[in-house]
């Protein structure tokens, strides 16, 4: 049985998520070349249905 509350666990998880996000954006935005994350959406015939540019620097 843990001594921390759910609120304490949620706060720690949120802080960890924020640190990871900050590191990601620091790396992503400091690149000196263009970079883009694209999500491909396929139809049932395995053909590209659409593309989404999820993030770019």
Rounded average pLDDT: 84
Could you say which overall geometry the principal axes of the C-alpha atoms support? flat
Assess the beta-strand content as a share of residues.
Answer: 25-35%
Task: Tell me how many strands there are.
Answer: 2
List segments where confidence is low: pLDDT < 50 over at least 5 consecutive residues.
none
Query: How is the main sheet built?
Result: 2 strands, antiparallel
Please bin the fraction of helical residues: 40-55%
Rounded radius of gyration (Å) = 18 Å
How many separate structural domains? Answer: 1
Strand line-up in the sheet with most strands:
1-2
Count, helices: 1
Q: What is the first-to-last residue Cα distance?
A: 45 Å
Quickly give the structural class: alpha+beta
Summarize the structure.
Helices cover 42% and strands 28% of the residues. It is an alpha+beta fold.
What does this structure look like?
The chain is of the alpha+beta class and 57 residues long. It has one domain (6-56). It is built from one helix and two strands, in the order αββ. It has one helix spanning 6-29, and strands at 36-42, 48-56. It has a two-stranded antiparallel sheet. It is flat. The model has no long low-confidence stretch (mean pLDDT 84).
Topology readout:
Blueprint: H1 6-29, E1 36-42, E2 48-56
């Amino acid at each position: 049985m843990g001594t921390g509350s759910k609120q304490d666990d949620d706060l720690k998880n949120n802080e960890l998520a924020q640190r990871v996000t900050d590191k990601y954006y620091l790396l992503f935005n400091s690149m000196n070349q263009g970079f883009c994350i694209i999500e491909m959406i396929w139809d049932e015939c395995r053909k590209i249905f659409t593309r989404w540019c999820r993030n770019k620097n």
